[in-house]
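Example 354, ligand MRU.
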Amino acid sequence: MNFETVALDDKNSALVIVDQTRLPGEVVTLRLTRQQEILDAIRTLKVRGAPAIGVAAAIGLYLAAKSICADSFDAFYREFRAAKEALAATRPTAVNLFWALERMEKVVLDSRELPVLEIKRRLYSEAVAIREEDIKMCRAIGEHGLKLLHDGDGILTHCNAGRLATVQYGTALAPIYLGHEKGYRFRVFADETRPLLQGARLTAFELALSGVDTTVICDNMAARGMQNGWVQAVLVGADRIAANGDVCNKIGTSALAILAQHYGIPFYVCAPTSTIDLNAATGADIPIEQRPDSEVTEMWFEQRMALEGVKVYNPAFDITDNALVTGIITEYGVARQPYGESLKAICEQKSAQE
Ligand code: MRU
């Protein structure tokens, strides 16, 4: 894959992304220079996946700040806040978006005594750091996750938690990529992931390009694959993890976790610490994005698939009860039950290193 999921072209003041709505048919690189284009790209899932959204938001906010013409800190900060709020309103669930925006704002507030030009320089460094850290976090998740897998394992995954959802490696796909590099012969089952087909369009695309044995299944076929004995582990990503270990991820994840428990298959969630939200006590505190009806009734087929005017329910995410989660694989290692303690310890370890 010789393209970037999400990058900064500072010379041309552009956010560079591959347009994920065009995959797998066409690989189209977009260079977005206007704020409205960046907001639309996040909202319409041209760039998507929790970590990639965070990186895109950080770069987007840096570019907004760079274009502000202001002599005083107060004037600069007013425009910066407006740009931050616009980015924060693009999608509600993936906490990485808010995490990245908060980091960028902290840079501004910590530099208020400095000239505006210097604040802009520091914002550049922070956006670049957020992107670089994502690569390191995903690689570490891959290393920790690979220790839990075996050569020849069948792995079921949902949505896209791969390179296209991050800067490199992915979260749930990182152990698969690292194992593949070492010669492990994994067989991956990619749920198609209705309604937007991130599994069929994106996961199968990136795994197949990397030479990983990949089979696409419809979402309702997971139980059949498990009954056949084809699945030794389920690996998924996350958009937000509550303090008690409840996991918010792409709609359909919770059903998979219930199936995995029934068939005695380990269910692992792979996510960087930037996805953990200790302010959300349980999954009930996580806002779930509702998306347009048309995604369910009209997309991907030549004819609409449901009668015009029929009622539609289209939540983009669901909550998996922490009791169903075998482990949460982070860049600091694997958190296990009780998650209230293990996640807190991992976050404290992270703060101590910062
Ligand atoms: O709506 P999307 O495509 O942004 O949802 C993405 C997911 O749910 C992923 O599983 C999650 O962000 C983990 S990404 C490493």
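Summary: Residues 6-138 form a domain with the Four Helix Bundle (Hemerythrin (Met), subunit A) fold (CATH 1.20.120.420).
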